[in-house]
Write a structure and sequence with these properties.
The strands form two sheets. A seven-stranded mixed sheet has the order 1-2-4-3-5-6-7. The protein contains 14 helices and 14 strands. The chain is α/β, with parallel strands linked by helices. The chain has two domains: 212 residues, 3-Layer(aba) Sandwich (Rossmann fold); 143 residues, Aldolase class I (TIM Barrel, Alpha-Beta Barrel). It is elongated and about 65 Å long.
Length: 362
């Protein structure tokens, strides 16, 4: 097995930090040690030997990192706010030093990185992905603790808030992070043994389930009057969801009115016929919608020429199908044609095929 050891001094933590690397090729997996462990723990516990066939087969490349637990959460002699500060610096070390190191080591800028850990390592695995979903895309957290208030002795500050997953995730409304989190694969595992506390895992799971309600939402607006449009804009702004809404616009006049009203949300052109798209102003548009029976090379080319995404409402109107109806074969055919998004009702079907979809709402 190919292995390397790397280390460097990091000013963020004021010390040398090492990384054990196992494998010659494969998707990168960052492994965090348990409470008092270091970069050698994973191998010492027999996990590298257990995964050797995957590592040697080029399926995964493992990066075992050191921790700062003893200098942060477990340093009972330090002030609580020093503990949270050290954790914030450790998080910055992971995002701005470890992630770029992995990208350079794999010679693949932007490569999706997986995190994993058990016990307190699970906390770091989950926290790292949830804070940096643009860098880390998959997480396997085993029997972790995701609410670490007990380490603060009743104190609380910003560094703690932004490193306590059940707190900052429950309040998250930043469209940038929500968009990236939608692309992540998060696994929170827990057991039922006599020494297992499954409560923290269920609690974070509940927070993430609640967060799904804040995922980007498409408003298919069928009204085109000033009063109705203003009411919608007030509701969206009042809910602080401007960056999470995609507004379906059915006429060029409606699109012009949104521009005049300084609407901040993205727009999806929904012309009755593909030829009517020419009248829609470009400002704010992210894509154009076709009906399934309008998907032709000419209509796709016209949309792409304007630099827009191609969205499709499922359902063949000539067959009197309800909007949103589609079969697996037809959905796969749309994907092969390079369609960017499909508006449909059967989200389970879409998830099973692994396509990017948006649920059609009544």
């Amino acid at each position: 097995m190919h292995r390397e050891y790397h280390h460097w001094y990091t000013g963020r933590l004021g010390r040398e930090m090492g990384i054990q690397v196992y494998g010659h090729y494969g998707m990168p997996l960052v492994v965090f040690p348990t409470s008092g462990g270091d970069e050698n723990e994973y191998e010492g516990q027999g996990m590298i030997a257990a995964l050797a066939h995957h590592i040697d087969g080029g399926r995964v490349k493992i990066y075992c990192v050191n921790s700062m637990n003893n200098e942060s959460w477990y340093d009972k002699q330090a002030h609580p706010r020093h503990r949270s500060y050290v954790q914030s610096m450790y998080d910055a070390y992971l995002a701005f030093e470890v992630a770029p190191f992995i990208q350079g080591h794999t010679r693949t800028p932007g490569i999706p990185i997986t995190t994993s850990g058990s016990s307190f390592g699970a906390y770091h695995a989950a926290n790292t992905l949830l804070k940096h979903p643009d860098l880390f895309r998959r997480c396997l957290a085993l029997s972790g603790v995701y609410d670490i208030r007990r380490f603060m002795n009743g104190d609380y500050d910003d560094n703690f808030y932004f490193n306590n997953p059940v707190d900052y995730m429950a309040s998250l409304n930043d469209g940038y992070y929500l968009q990236h989190l939608q692309q992540c694969d998060i696994h929170l595992a827990t057991g039922t043994g006599p020494y297992e506390d499954c409560g923290p895992t269920y609690r974070l799971s509940e927070v993430l389930a609640f967060l799904r309600g804040r995922a980007p939402l498409m408003l298919d607006v069928k009204i085109d009057d000033d009063e109705g449009r203003a009411a919608i804009m007030r509701e969206v702004d009042g809910a602080a969801m401007s960056e999470q809404v995609i507004y379906g616009v059915r006429s060029a006049r409606h699109a012009q009115a949104l521009i005049a009203g300084a609407a901040r949300f993205a727009r999806l052109a929904m012309p009755a016929k593909p030829s009517a798209l020419d009248a829609f102003p470009q400002e704010g548009l992210i894509g154009a919608r076709l009906w399934e029976d309008q998907v032709e090379d000419a209509s796709i080319t016209a949309i792409r020429r304007r630099g827009l995404e191609v969205w499709v409402t499922a359902g063949v109107r000539s067959c009197s199908e309800a909007p949103g109806y589609i079969t697996a074969e037809r959905l796969a055919a749309l994907a092969r044609r390079g369609v960017d998004a499909v508006l449909l009702n059967d989200v389970g079907l879409a998830a099973a095929l692994g396509h990017r979809v948006t649920q059609e709402r009544p």
